[in-house]
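pinging the channel bc i need a second pair of eyes. not urgent but kinda urgent?? the chain im working w is below, pasted from the shared doc
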Amino acid sequence: MSLAWERLARRLAAREPKTFDLAGLPPDHAYRWAAVAVILCPDPDAVLRIRRAERAGDPWSGHIGLPGGRRDPSDPDLCTTALRETAEEIGCTLSRDGLLGQLDDVWPRTPLPQVIVVRPFVFALTQRPRVTLNPEVADTFWVPLTELQDPATYRDTPLQVRGREMIFPAYHLGPGIVWGLTERILTPMVALAMDGPPA
C-alpha cells in the first residue's frame, strides 16, 4: 500500500464517520439507502471512476461517478451493497480485507421526492482490476490522486439542474466534470490522503 493510502487508512480509522440523521426528516418523507465503492490503486496512486450510460429517466444518466447503487432488501448491511453493486456494474470482486474505512454519508441537496442517502466505503487494491461493464456503465477510468489534489482542476462551476442554472464545486478532469454527490465524497477523501494535517 502506498504512503498516501496508508495515511488515509490511519485517518479513517481514527475518525467517526458522520451518518445521516433520520430524526431530521418529516415522518411522511420517503428515503432510501445506497452505497458506493471508492476503489484505490497504487503505481501511481489513482481512484476508479465510472461514466454512467445515457438512459432516459435516470437522474444520473451520463454522469461520472462511483460504482454502487441502492440497497437490496437481502443486503445485510451497506458494505454488502457496495460489494454487490460493484461486482454487478463493473465485474470487480472486492473483499472486506481491502476495506480501508467509511466516509461520511451524503445525500442530494436539491429537493427530491425521495431522499437517497449514500454511504461511501473506501477499498484499496494492490493492482488495477480487470473490469467487465454491464449496460448501466458506459466506461471506467482512473484519476491520479495528484490530479485531484491540483487546485487547477477544482473550481465552482455553473451547471443546469432541472432547468435551473446552479453553481457547484466540481473537478474538471480529462473525461469530464465530477460534481454533486461524487465531488462531496471525493473532496474530504482527498484531504485525508494528503500529506500534512487533514483539512
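so The mean pLDDT is 89. and Residues 3-145+181-193 form a domain with the Nucleoside Triphosphate Pyrophosphohydrolase fold (CATH 3.90.79.10). — does that match what u expected or am i reading it wrong
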